[in-house]
Design a protein that fits this description.
This protein is mostly helical and 159 residues long. It has helices at residues 6-15, 17-27, 46-62, 97-115, 121-135, 141-149, and strands at residues 31-35, 38-42, 81-83, 86-88, 93-95. Helix 2 packs antiparallel against helix 3 (46-62) and helix 4 packs antiparallel against helix 5 (121-135).
């Protein structure tokens, strides 16, 4: 099934429902957030979170799934955590730097493709609006203004 397919998102929610039930009913963390296959658990102590991690890994083994070892870490909330393209802090959220760098690179590629006639204005507009929809979830107005001020489509008008 292709990544990003709406069916795969639905099936991930169905397949991981037992994990959700287990975490919420048995582990009872301070907060639990899951989107498809990415999830966060919040707790008061590092030891309790380590216990929860082992329990989640055992639960996922029953579903024939593994936790990605490099991406599974315990963070202090004050230090922030990256989740779904955002850097989350207790009082604010910021667009993750990697997200901005990748989009800037894509903008350059789209600008080049437009100049060479390999992409239409509408194709570029759709891709840009998709990213804006994601970025607009936070206070990113100034960032978006700065990004788009750096790029123009050669045929005379901006997107």
């Amino acid at each position: 099934m292709p990544l990003g397919n709406q069916t795969s998102q639905f099936l991930a929610n169905v397949y991981l429902n037992p994990l959700d039930q287990y975490v919420n009913r048995e582990l009872r963390p301070g907060c639990y957030i899951r989107y498809v296959d990415d999830f966060l658990l919040f707790g008061e102590s590092k030891a309790k979170l380590a216990d929860m991690r082992r329990a989640v890994e055992a639960s996922l083994e029953g579903l024939r799934l593994l936790v990605h070892q490099r991406k599974s870490r315990v963070y202090r909330c004050a230090d922030g955590v990256t989740f779904l393209g955002w850097r989350l802090f207790p009082e604010e959220s910021r667009l993750a730097r990697d997200n901005v760098v990748r989009f800037r690179r894509r903008l350059r590629q789209m600008e080049r493709a437009f100049r060479e006639g390999a992409a239409t204005r509408e194709e570029i507009r759709a891709r840009i609006h998709s990213w804006i929809g994601h970025a607009a979830a936070g206070n990113t107005w100034r960032l978006r203004e700065q990004l788009f001020a750096q790029f123009t489509l050669v045929k005379g008008s901006a997107v």
